[in-house]
Design a protein that fits this description.
The complex is a heterodimer of chains A (362) and B (325). With 362 residues, chain A is mainly β. Chain A has helices at 2-17, 95-101, 187-193, 347-353; strands at residues 21-24, 48-50, 66-68, 80-86, 89-94, 103-108, 111-118, 123-128, 130-131, 134-135, 138-145, 148-153, 159-161, 166-169, 179-180, 182-186, 198-200, 242-248, 251-256, 265-271, 274-281, 286-291, 302-304, 311-315, 320-322, 327-329, 343-346, 358-359. Chain B contains 1 helix and 22 strands. In chain B, a hairpin with a 6-residue loop joins strand 13 (212-213) and strand 14 (220-222). The chains are: A mainly beta (362), B mainly beta (325).
Chain lengths: 362, 325
């Protein structure tokens, strides 16, 4: 009988003693653990972690369906949407859907774009999908860098940093992505501003409970709820303070959205020698930024325009500008302000990515 | 009251106090782990008995739930296969020692809705379990009644820092948890006389989890505590075949990172387990059981059990022989 137990123990030991290993579907990456190769990444790959669901485990929306504003019933006025305007086509993408998908591959006015949204860093950025003359789609790689989404492009498999707007790994490593101006605001304000726009609906092709936020209702406000390490903490603001940040020549400045007036407030700012227009409203939870210097050298000074959405500002020439930076009336009607590339994100992420950002004094 | 009785009741009191001092919350990721506690054999092993078992479980974790509602999972497929080796040895008529060792293989496929699905397989030695059990009540006269309590530790034998492409894998894809856990356990069994061949049992275990450093020093990850209550009955279906029907309740608290709850972890599950046992002879038995979920209420969006199948083979090396299904 002892021999039987001996063989049983040996049998199990043989099964177990084969050392731990990880294999994936790419045969040339079969290995037993090990460190990442820093040369292949532009960012410190030690800071890149597996977010859990793996590549495309969080499914991007690749065939988005839209409804009219009046048809949307699943959104409350306080909830946030991200909006884009390309040509005359205006679309909104609700956060509550983006929480489950993080990327929408869409075409707006025949321009291929991707709406990228990272629920963990609160950052929403629009990207053009035409890269080196080829149209691509973006998917969720399943990797996380400093809590932030790392998309991958499906043509080359290159991985991109959302908040850096740059490919950080793969064939396209080092390439900057062209961004699309995205406006983030409450659904209540959006309805008022763009009642004729199209809105991404819940017919996403995936069965999800879009009534609930994936990371809990309190994730956007709970400063303790951080899922992955912060490498560069900055306690000048609470972690989950939503800020509109801009980067000019590697110098950053942020505008905490809660510190704007409830009504639209205009800041004619000068930052790193550039004249910048910042418009924000704490009530509408919106902030946008544009360069105030036009191509012809004209420097504009702005004043806020309230109660006339989507118009947000008027300049000294009498032009009225909408929230996407387009002159909708006045002598410069049809002209556009140049977008700064700024976007909204939680303060902890902005401070983790960019070195000691300036904070606007209101 | 004799000294022996005083000791017995003192032990019981301490055990109950320990059990109820921890509120029932548990470990979501353990649904993707080796079934350490839930799979423990309930065979009586005392007084020089030696029982050795090898089990293999195939656990399909492809269902996707939001809270209590199932949602269609178009994008992922996920399984965990666990091989367990149990050794139970009776130190005395009332005291026994159990050890469980595991080998775990986790597999996930994602992007099934795309043209380029990805797969990842992780395998390695899983965590182990060491338990001491004390039978404090034993009435042999039908209907018999036995009560046993136990305690032990889950030993972090499994790797918790495995990487893919150099990147630290998520906690629920690791073979181990990296933490020492404390365990309290109890079992109540009763059987009737030979004219009514039915054994009833109630097994309750509670695991209060330890923590481990996941992303580096001072970055503490803790799986949620876990409560498992299993009740059911077994009966003979002839000379060599036994059938066991089980209802299992399991609850897990949310995982925590740096004492902050992690979203989409924790919840409770109710499952049914049916088990067929076959006594090959007085020493060998084979078992197969299937587990299906009856209901679950999960925190947020989580993959969870579609079904699980376990095949077991036990050998009884005792001097005296008991049928042990």
């Amino acid at each position: 009988m002892k021999s039987i137990s001996f063989y049983l123990v040996i049998l199990f030991a043989l099964t177990a003693v084969s050392c731990s290993k990880v294999t994936d579907s790419n045969p040339d990456t079969e290995f037993e653990g090990g460190d990442c190769d820093g040369e292949n990444w532009l960012i410190p790959c030690q800071q890149v972690v597996d977010g859990g669901p793996d590549q495309d485990g969080i499914p991007s929306i690749d065939d988005p369906k839209f409804s009219t504003v009046s048809e949307i019933t699943f959104l409350e006025d306080w909830e946030l949407v991200m909006g884009v305007k390309v040509g005359d086509n205006i679309k909104a993408y609700p956060h509550v859907i983006l929480y489950y998908h993080e990327i929408v591959n869409d075409e707006v006015d025949e321009t291929p774009i991707a709406l990228t949204f990272c629920p963990l860093t609160g950052s929403g950025i629009g990207w053009e999908r035409t890269i080196n003359g080829e149209i691509t789609e973006f998917g969720v790689s399943g990797l996380i860098h400093k809590n932030n989404l790392i998309p991958y492009d499906r043509n080359t498999g290159s991985r991109w940093s959302q908040m850096l707007n740059k490919s950080v790994n793969g064939d396209l490593k080092g390439l900057d992505i062209s961004t699309v101006n995205v406006v983030e605001m409450t659904w209540g304000a959006w309805k008022e501003a763009f009642p004729d726009s199209e809105v991404l609906n819940t017919n996403t092709g995936f069965n999800r409970n879009y009534d609930k936020y994936l990371y809990g209702e309190d994730y956007p406000v709970n400063n303790s709820r951080i899922l992955f390490p912060i490498y560069q903490e900055d306690e000048r603001l609470d972690r989950k303070t939503l800020v509109h940040g801009i980067n000019i020549r590697s110098v950053s400045k942020v505008y905490p959205i809660a510190l704007f007036n409830p009504q639209l407030q205009v800041i004619n700012d000068v930052f790193e020698g550039e004249k910048i227009l910042i418009v924000g409203s704490s009530e509408m939870k919106v902030s946008v930024s544009f360069f105030r210097t036009l191509a012809d050298g004209t420097e504009l000074e702005f004043q806020p325009v309230n109660e006339d959405l989507p118009v947000i500002a008027e300049d000294q020439e009498g032009n009225h500008w909408d929230i996407f930076g387009e002159a909708v009336s006045g002598p410069r009607k049809g002209e556009k302000l140049k977008h700064t590339g700024g976007y909204n994100a939680y303060w902890f992420a902005w401070a983790d990515f960019f070195n000691f950002p300036q904070i606007n004094s209101f | 009251m004799t000294l022996n009785q005083v000791t017995k009741y003192l032990l019981l009191t301490v055990w109950i106090a320990v059990l109820f001092s921890f509120k029932g919350t548990a470990q979501t990721c353990s649904c993707a782990g080796a079934p350490l506690l839930g799979a423990q054999s309930s065979a009586p092993v005392f007084g020089g008995d030696l029982l050795i078992g090898i089990s293999h479980e195939y656990h399909d974790i492809s269902k996707l739930y939001v809270n209590g509602d199932i949602v269609e999972n178009e994008s992922t497929f996920r399984t965990t296969q666990s091989t367990l080796m149990e050794v139970h040895y009776g130190l005395s008529a009332k005291l026994s020692l159990s050890g469980t060792f595991t080998y775990v293989k986790k597999y996930r496929q994602t992007g099934l809705h795309t043209q380029n699905p990805q797969s990842l397989a992780v395998s390695g030695v899983g965590d182990g379990l060491l338990m001491l059990k004390y039978k404090f009540f034993d009435r042999l006269k039908p209907p018999s009644l036995q009560a046993t309590i136990g305690g032990g530790v889950k030993v972090p034998l499994g790797s918790f820092d495995m990487r893919n492409d150099g990147f630290l894998l998520n906690a629920d894809m690791q073979p181990g948890t990296g933490a020492w856990d404390g365990i309290v356990w109890s079992e109540l069994t009763s059987s009737f006389d030979s004219s009514f061949p039915l054994n009833l049992f109630l097994i309750t275990s509670y695991r209060f989890t330890g923590s481990s450093e996941r992303f580096g020093t001072n970055d503490i990850y803790q799986f949620g505590n876990e409560l498992i209550t299993t009740t059911g009955g077994s009966t003979s279906l002839g000379e060599k075949i036994g059938y066991t029907a089980v209802l299992q309740y399991r609850s897990a608290s949310s995982d925590q990172r740096n004492e902050t709850k992690q979203p989409n972890t924790g919840g409770f599950w109710v499952s049914h387990i049916s088990k067929l046992s076959y006594s090959i002879n007085d020493r060998f038995s084979a078992h197969i059981d299937g587990r299906i979920p009856l209901m679950q209420e999960l925190n947020g969006l989580q993959p969870t059990t579609s079904y699980a199948i376990m095949v077991s083979f036990f050998v009884n090396l005792s001097k005296r022989l008991n049928r042990f299904y």
